[in-house]
Amino acid sequence: GTSNTQWTPGFNACDKSYLMPDLGSPEYVPAVLELCKRERIDGLLSFFDMDVHRLSKHVEEFEAAGVKCFIPRAETADICFDKWRTFQWLRDNGFGTAATWIDLASAKQAMAAGELAFPVYVKPRSGFGSRNTFKARNWQELEVFFGLEPDMIVQETLGGVAYDFDILNDLQGRALSVVCWRKSLSRMGETEQAVTVHDDRLTEVGLRLANLLGHAGPLDADLFLWNDKVYVLEINLRFGGGYPVSHLAGAGFPQAITEMVNGRTPTIQQGAYKAGVLMMKELH
Predict the structure, then answer these.
(1) CB within 8 A of 82, min separation 6: which ones?
(2) pLDDT score at 242
(3) What distance, in Å, lies between the first and last C-alpha atoms of the chain?
(4) Closest C-alpha to 51, from 21, 11, 90, 79
(5) Do residues 73 and 59 make contact, with C-beta atoms less than 8 angstroms apart?
(6) 17 touches 2 (CB < 8 A)
């Protein structure tokens, strides 16, 4: 396991742990690559959006060193890390998604035309974990929130029920498994309560989404089921904070990744998980 600080709880689950340069440092990727060579690492993945985005630019270098990368290619990572590009990609590929505006002028025009109404969400184009995401109820709040960062977007508020799915693709970018669950409680972008469901509508969207993206490894996405239509809001090319509920229901993604790292065909099957498994997180 790697981190840039010794105060990393995940180190407790690692056989070995290493401190790395900061993500923004030019020494970061060379340090990770050197570590992979020194420790003869067979597989690489990340749990942090900014890290996924950074490593995606260097997948070929790691593969040349014999490392199997559960990291998306650069173009796919760019699409999912930039929420404006995510919106455009989802719209262009026929997925339901929240209408999005990239500047205040176009948002005001949409308001005047009756295409947008308060409340709306304001968030950074490249944000993660609900960082600096705000619900604006009027123009004063919208203008204040929009000025908090240089690159912000405005999104319509979706109704309906919040869902999510965890997806795992193989190293060729083909979807292996979609596990769906309904959110009961989310705090600061982290799912705290959820229950697994079987829903053909969500599964169909998940399979199509993952196969079109064609990435290698895990995917987590925020969804809404509204007026009998599935809307995709956020796409994270990593394990999401709600994966424990999928795992407890029998998803088996870590086992499948281990099998692929070892050159074996993953044994997980689509739909082979239990519905009605409830997760509740608490802090200790």
Answers:
(1) 125, 126
(2) 92
(3) 22
(4) 21
(5) yes
(6) yes
Q: What is the side-by-side strand order in the sheet with 120-124?
A: 100-101, 152-156, 120-124, 134-136
Residue 178, Cβ density class (10 Å: 0-12 exposed, 13-18 middle, ≥19 buried): buried
Rounded to an integer, the average pLDDT of 81-98 is 97
| Cα gap 237→1, rounded to integer Å | 19
Predicted confidence (pLDDT) at residue 188 exceeds the cutoff of 90 = no
Mean pLDDT computed over 35-50: 96
Residue 178 β-bridge partners: 167
Radius of gyration of the chain (CA): 19
Residue with structure tokens 């509740």? 280
Predicted confidence (pLDDT) per residue in 6-16, tens digit? 999 999 999 99
Given a cut of 90, whether residue 127 has pLDDT beyond it is: no
The answer for residues whose C-beta is within 8 angstroms of residue 171's C-beta and 6 or more apart is: 68, 70, 216, 260
pLDDT-based confidence at residue 184 (cuts at 50, 70, 90): confident
**DSSP letters for 34-98:** HHHHHTT--EE--S-HHHHHHHHTTHHHHHHTTPEE-S--HHHHHHHHSHHHHHHHHHHTT-B--
Cβ(180)–Cβ(169) below 8 Å: no
- Is 127 in a helix, a strand, or coil? coil
Which of helix, strand or coil describes residue 261?
helix
Q: Please tell me the distance from the alpha carbon of residue 211 to that of residue 208, in angstroms, as a whole number.
A: 5
Task: Please check the confidence at residue 129 and state whether its pLDDT lies above 70.
Answer: no
Q: What is the pTM of this model?
A: 0.94
* Each residue's pLDDT tens digit, 139-153: 999 999 999 999 999
Contact 136, 119 (CB under 8 A): yes
Kindly report the CA angle at 128 between 279 and 244, in degrees rounded to 5? 20
